[in-house]
Structure formats: C-alpha cells, structure tokens
Amino acid sequence: MTIPARSKDPLWARLLIAGGIALVLLAAGALAGKQALFSYATRSVAQEKLLGGSGKQAQQRGHVDITGAKTILLIGVDARPGQDPAEPVRADSIIMLHIPASHDSAFLVSIPRDTWVKIPPYDNGARQYEGGHDKINGAYARGGEGLTGAEQRAHAVELLALTIKSLWGIAFDGAAIVDFSGFQQVVEVLGGVDMYVDEETTSIHIGHDAKGETKVPFRQYTRADGGQGLSAVPGVTPVVYHVGLQHLEPWQALDFVRQRELLPNSDYDRQRHQQQFLKALFGKMLSRDVLSSPKQLNQVLQVAGKAMTIDSGGIDLADWAYAMRGIGGDDLITVKTNNGTFNNSPDNRQAEALDDTTLDLFDAVRTETLPAFLTAHPELIAKS
Questions:
Q1: Is 264 left (phi over 0), alpha (psi -120 to 50) or beta?
Q2: How far apart are CA 78 and CA 179, in angstroms?
Q3: Rounded to whole angstroms, how far apart are CA atoms 292 and 192?
Q4: Hey, how many other C-beta atoms are within 10 angstroms of the C-beta on 244?
C-alpha cells in the first residue's frame, strides 16, 4: 500500500487557528454586553504586535467602533518538543478569517501551506533573506530565522503577511498565532464532541491486537521516490470511524481529525473533517450548558487563551468581541480552495499552485466582495 507524497501537517494547527481566536471572541460576545464580562473572556490571551508594517491599521488606543469588512490572518504552528527555540518554525496552517461589513458571518479561507510562491527580501535584524521561491509556509520560517520569543513571532508573521500582500494584494486588520499543543486541553475540558462522520475513516495511528492491547496498525516508510508509504502490521486491527452521528471521546476526536493517508483526497478530506469537528466543538463551547457554568467556561477560556497570541490591530479585544457578537457557530463558513484537491505546481511537483477560481476567490477577499462572489460560486462553500 502506498500513499502520495505529502508533508506532515499537524492536526491542531489547522483546526485551532481557524477557530482559536473566534472562540474567545465569540464566547465574549455570547456572554453579554458588559465590559467586565468581555474582559473576563479575553483576559488570558497574550497580545503582541505581530503584523509590523504589513497591517492595514495603525496601533491606536482606547475603544473604537469597528465598522466595515475586516480580514484577520490566522496562523497555526507546531514546534516539536525540545526544539531549539532559535530553530526556524514553518507555519503549519494559514487561514484568512474574513468578516464582511455586515458583521453577521465569518468566512474561513485557507491558503494551502504548500503553495509555491515568491517570497520578498526581508531583514529581521538577525538574518537577511535575499528573497526567492519556496512554499508559502517557508515565509514564516524565514521571517523569524535566528530569533526567539516575541521577536521571532513578530518577524515571522510580518514576512508572511508581506508575502501575501505582495502576491494577492491582501492586507490584514489583525493576526493571531495558535500553538496547537496548548489547545488540545479544550477537548479534554469539554469531554469530547458529538459530530457527523461523513465517510468511513481508518486510523493509521491506533489499533488493537487479539488481546485488546492498543497498538499502531500501520508502519510508515520512505519509498524510493522520496514519498511516504504504509504497510499494515500483521495481527493489529485499526480503529475505524463509521459514517453517522457519533460521540467522539477526546482520544477519538484527536485521532479522527489526524487521518488523511487512507482518505481519497488526503489532506483536503482531513481539512473538511477538521472543519466539521471545529463547528461541533464551537457548538458545545457556546452551548447553554457551558456558558451557564462559570467553572467550565473558565476552564475552556483559560486553556484556549493561553494557546493564542493576538495582534488586535490596536483595537481593544472587547471591541472586537462586541463587533462579532452576532456571529454564531452556524455563521462560521468554510470555503474550499483548489476545489478541495491538491493542485500540483508546474514549477515544483512537490508543491501546489492556486487555480484560477481560487485566485478570483482571493481577489474577492481583497476587494471585500466575498459574500457576493460565493453567491455566484456556491460550490466553493464546504459542507461542514
């Protein structure tokens, strides 16, 4: 059994950058219109200036009314345990969260992390990058190379945002980084989720032998062409997630949204499953049971907030929360890029190129006409 060559993509990065910031802001909006409650919902979130000179809006003080369409750059990262803090970290997921001027919905538009692009020259003070071609997630790594901590994050985000701006003319009103490792606790706090499994999904990570002991059901190996292959482990039966409405315990949820190797559309199927899971997770987070339980709400917001670093564009988080108060879980719309399939780049067969429709989609984000564009292209709205 073989699988197409794909680079490893951590599950929580994509999931939580799509929803991490939205969780805190939506939860704040759901609480009430009182400033004290907004502050409670956002108190554990770290705030840093990430966009530098690439953002739309100058830093400002005090409370403001948020008007017009807004676009936020969401980035997921997954530093390995024990990784040297000065070692470059690539962005594992890149998503544009676009909020139209009506502030009654939010659109999640992924930028495929393997997209082959031209990255502009950049000097972060420690390293000077001359510019060149790479996968777009490499822009994040190049920006923060040779730095650590807040400086690394700020320059990494700035070069990524400058790259997006130079390619597609999209500038951002805010940005957020989500570290997947801290966000896994949210699922534990909530005790799992209820969601619909839309296709039979076989785990390559968890199985059981004849004695019922947990074993890895597949071995991964590197093929002669450099791609990754799988071989079944004799005597181990993999866990299978069957089609239908399921309650997934925390370990099942984490395993389910990791799967891609045995799915027909690989990473794009996993992305759809992650989006479906995200909506189910939001539904539980914003349910009456959670919002009416100070203890559980406090636990959820604490673990979510600690996993995020936000550049609010100088706008108080309470004002962001108030502006987004009308957006619920069902109003979070995921949008497909490249029609949900891997589109090989003619310049690098291991990388991806954006098709013409996706380029038009990005232009609709830039021109703030995304709702009208999607009305004309309903097939781009993911079923999640």
A1: alpha
A2: 6
A3: 18
A4: 9
pLDDT single digits (tens) 54-79? 887 544 445 566 788 999 998 877 65
The amino acid present at 61, given as its one-letter code, is R
Q: How far is Cα 370 from Cα 71, in angstroms, rounded to an integer? A: 11
Name the residue with tokens 């109003």: 331
Pick from 107-116, 177-186, 209-218, 363-372: least confident: 177-186
- Asked if residues 56 and 313 have their Cβ atoms less than 8 Å apart, the reply is yes
Tell which CATH architecture fits domain 20-184+290-380.
2-Layer Sandwich (3.30)
Phi, psi at residue 236, to the nearest 5°? Answer: -115, 125
With residue 108 as reference, give the H or E element that holds it: strand 106-110
8 A C-beta contact, residue 133 and residue 121: no
Would you say how long the chain is, in residues? 384
User: What percent of the chain clears pLDDT 90, i.e. is strictly above it?
Assistant: 40
Number of H helices, E strands in the chain: 12, 18
pLDDT digits (tens, 9 = 90+) for 327-356: 766 777 889 899 888 888 999 988 899 999
CB 12 within 8 A of CB 78: yes
Question: Within 10 Å of residue 177's Cβ, how many Cβ atoms?
Answer: 27
Task: State the Cα angle at 321 between 320 and 323, rounded to 5°.
Answer: 65
Paired tokens of 354: 């954006």
Residues 371, 149: Cα–Cα separation, whole Å? 38
What token pair was written down for 287? Answer: 């349910």
Does residue 331 sit in helix, strand or coil? helix
CB under 8 Å to 34, separation ≥6 — which residues? none
pTM: 0.77
Selection from 292, 329, 95, 93 nearest residue 193 by Cα: 329
**Which backbone phi and psi does 169 adopt, to 5 degrees?**
75, 15
**334 and 108 Cβ atoms separated by less than 8 Å:** yes
| Residue-wise pLDDT tens digits, 261-309 | 899 887 778 777 877 886 787 777 767 787 677 777 778 777 777 777 8
- Sorted by where each begins, the domain ranges of the chain are 20-184+290-380
**Average predicted confidence (pLDDT) for the chain:** 81
* Residue 262 DSSP label: T
